[in-house]
Structure prediction request, 196 residues.
Amino acid sequence: MTNHAARTSIAIALVASLFAGCSTEVKRTGFIPKSVTMKSGENQSHKWAADTKKLAAFGKVVVWPTETPAGNAYGDLDPEKLATLRGLLEKSIKEAFGESLGNGDRTLVIRSALTAVKPNKPLLNVAPQSQIMKRGYGYAACEIYATDGDTGPVVAAFMQTTDTERFSTEKLDALGTAERACNEWGAEFRELFPTK
Prediction:
């Protein structure tokens, strides 16, 4: 390979990496019990569900308040904004599950945690040329799991990191990415429970 060809290859690789940007994946925090072996899924998610659980066995669903256990993993968000995000995630889960999954006598208990939030920086996301490195983009991460009763075994678990989407308006709001993610995670967790 000639010197010119090598420089050209390096330049192409650098330009490609600039446009690709980088995604962030928050590591597991320990909110989901360590005994649960998660499997990688799509869109920076990890999932696990017991094979033997049937929806009809859970006649009642209890959703605990969403937690924020990760200390300083929330940037400079004030407690009020964190409370708003916790409320959105809790509401998303409640809407996805309703009050029951079937007619059985068991209770499904769902616990959730907002494990990280990096707010968007809207001023860095206005002009297309300022978005190349995605410096103004944020992300949010969660961990959710359900148990058979209050102290029973884990029957499903889900964790995901959601990055800002390039072609969206969410990047123009500091909490746009986190709010979208919180509103979607309940339905994504619900998918782990087959309807039949």
In short: The chain has a mean pLDDT of 78. The first strand starts at residue 39 and ends at 40. The two ends are 59 Å apart (CA to CA). The CA atoms of residues 10 and 16 lie 10 Å apart.
